[in-house]
Design goal:
With about 290 residues, the protein is an all-alpha fold. About 85% of the residues lie in helices and about 0% in strands. Helix 1 packs across helix 11 (about 240-275).
C-alpha cells in the first residue's frame, strides 16, 4: 500500500470530502492525468478541432445573414455538420471523462493506491454504452424536472448525480443504477445536496476564471470598452486566432475542473454507502482476519 494512499470506503463529513478530493488530486496528479489524456485525449482533440471550426465558420454565417454575401446554403450546411460533430464530441468527452475518473478510482481503490492502465482502459470502453444510456436517462429526468418546476429538477439531480458511481462500484446496469441512486440518498438528501452545492460553487468560481479572459478579449475587440462598437468587428472576432485559442483553453479548463465534481461525487457515494452497507468496514475486518491467520 502506498504511504499517501487515500481510503475511499469510509464515512466522511463535508469538510473531509472537500479536503480529500484535493488531496487525491495532489497525490495522483501525474498518473491520474496521464491515464486521463491517454484515454480521453483523442476524443478531446476532435472536440477542440470541432470547436475551432465552428467558431471560425459561425463568423461566415453571421456575415452572410448581415451582408447577404453568397453561398448561403453551402455555409449553412457546413455550420450544421460542424455543429453536430461538436455536440457529439462534447457528449463523448463528457462520457469518457466521467467513466475514466470512476474506473481509475475503482482500480486505485482495489489496488490500494496502485492502478492498472490496461484494466481501466478496458472497463472504460466496455461500459461506454451503459454510460450513454444512463446519461440519457439522467439528462431527460433532470431536464423534465426543471421544466416542470425548478425544485423537482434539483431534487432529482442530487441522487441521479451519484448514479454513475453506483453503475461502476455496484456493477449494476443503467436502469438498476438509476433506481438504486434514490435508495442510496434516502434520509441523506439534504447533506448530499449541501455537499454538491459547496463543490458546485468552488468549481463555478474556478470556471469563471477560465472564461473571463475570453470575455474580456471579446469586449475589447468589439469596442465595448472604447465605446466605438462596429458590426463588422463584432463578426470578425469569431475568426480571430487569439479569440479561438482563448475559447479552446477555457473549454478545456472547464472540462478538467468538472473532474473535481466527479471525484467529490465518488467520496459522497462511498460516504453514503458506508452509512447504509458498511462495505469498507466489513472489508477491513476481513483483512484483519487474514492478517491474523497469516
Amino acid at each position: 500500500m502506498k504511504t499517501d494512499y487515500i481510503e475511499f470506503k469510509k464515512q466522511r463529513e463535508l469538510g473531509d470530502i472537500l479536503s480529500d478530493t484535493f488531496a487525491f488530486l495532489r497525490a495522483e496528479f501525474k498518473p491520474f492525468f496521464t491515464t486521463y489524456f491517454k484515454i480521453v485525449g483523442p476524443f478531446l482533440l476532435v472536440m477542440i478541432l470541432a470547436l475551432a471550426a465552428y467558431l471560425y465558420f459561425v463568423g461566415n454565417i453571421a456575415n452572410i445573414m448581415m451582408f447577404n454575401s453568397g453561398n448561403e446554403a453551402a455555409n449553412l450546411a457546413t455550420i450544421f455538420i460542424i455543429g453536430l460533430v461538436y455536440i457529439l464530441s462534447i457528449m463523448a468527452v463528457y462520457t469518457m471523462s466521467q467513466s475514466t475518473v470512476l474506473h481509475y478510482i475503482k482500480s486505485y481503490s482495489n489496488g490500494k493506491g496502485t492502478t492498472d492502465f490496461d484494466t481501466v482502459q478496458k472497463e472504460v470502453y466496455g461500459s461506454f454504452w451503459n454510460f450513454i444510456g444512463l446519461g440519457i436517462m439522467v439528462g431527460l429526468s433532470v431536464m423534465v424536472g426543471f421544466i416542470c418546476c425548478i425544485i423537482p429538477g434539483i431534487y432529482l439531480y442530487v441522487p441521479l448525480a451519484l448514479s454513475f458511481s453506483v453503475l461502476v462500484f455496484n456493477r449494476m446496469g443503467a436502469s438498476d443504477a438509476y433506481s438504486y441512486s434514490f435508495t442510496l440518498v434516502k434520509d441523506e438528501w439534504w447533506m448530499t445536496f449541501a455537499t454538491f452545492f459547496v463543490i458546485g460553487i468552488i468549481v463555478a468560481i474556478a470556471s469563471y476564471a477560465f472564461a473571463l479572459p475570453t470575455a474580456i478579449y471579446q469586449w475589447m475587440k468589439m469596442g465595448i470598452f472604447s465605446g466605438e462598437m462596429d458590426a463588422e468587428n463584432m463578426l470578425d472576432i469569431f475568426k480571430d486566432p487569439i479569440y479561438i485559442l482563448l475559447n479552446i483553453v477555457g473549454t478545456i479548463g472547464q472540462f478538467l475542473l468538472n473532474l473535481i465534481s466527479v471525484i467529490a461525487g465518488v467520496f459522497i457515494y462511498f460516504n453514503l454507502n458506508e452509512k447504509k452497507n458498511f462495505t469498507g468496514t466489513y472489508e477491513q475486518i476481513e483483512n484483519l482476519g487474514k492478517t491474523s491467520d497469516n
